[in-house]
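Lab meeting, item 3. Inverse folding demo.
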């Protein structure tokens, strides 16, 4: 079992930056994908940016060049650096962890942290 603890959400003005943190604890797998999804009111939850245990990233085109993701293997954590924030980025951001061990698949979600971009 994996527990995900998120932090860093809040209210910011357009153009400002924010960093979200997600720390994983419990059972740690050697093969995983960890990152962030977001869900705005009335919208489907969508991938923002993720990184695999091997270092590969996946992202939505809307954040390319604006958001970056970084791992801290010692802390079993990932950080989402969000720069030049826009109001349309307002959403609940969820940390996500997906692991594979042999034939088994595991998936975990954080509780979500609100990011509001408003003037």
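The presenter then showed the designed sequence:
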């Amino acid at each position: 079992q994996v527990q995900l603890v998120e932090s860093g959400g809040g209210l910011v003005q357009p153009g400002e930056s924010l960093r979200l943190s997600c720390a994983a604890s419990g059972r740690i797998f050697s093969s995983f994908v960890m990152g962030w999804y977001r869900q705005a009111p009335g919208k489907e939850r969508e991938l923002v940016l993720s990184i695999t245990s091997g270092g590969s990233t996946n992202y939505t085109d809307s954040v390319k060049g604006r958001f970056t993701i970084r791992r801290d293997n010692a802390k079993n954590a990932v950080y989402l650096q969000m720069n030049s924030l826009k109001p349309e980025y307002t959403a609940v951001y969820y940390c996500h962890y997906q692991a594979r061990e042999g034939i088994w698949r595991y998936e975990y979600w954080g509780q979500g942290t609100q990011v509001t971009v408003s003037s």
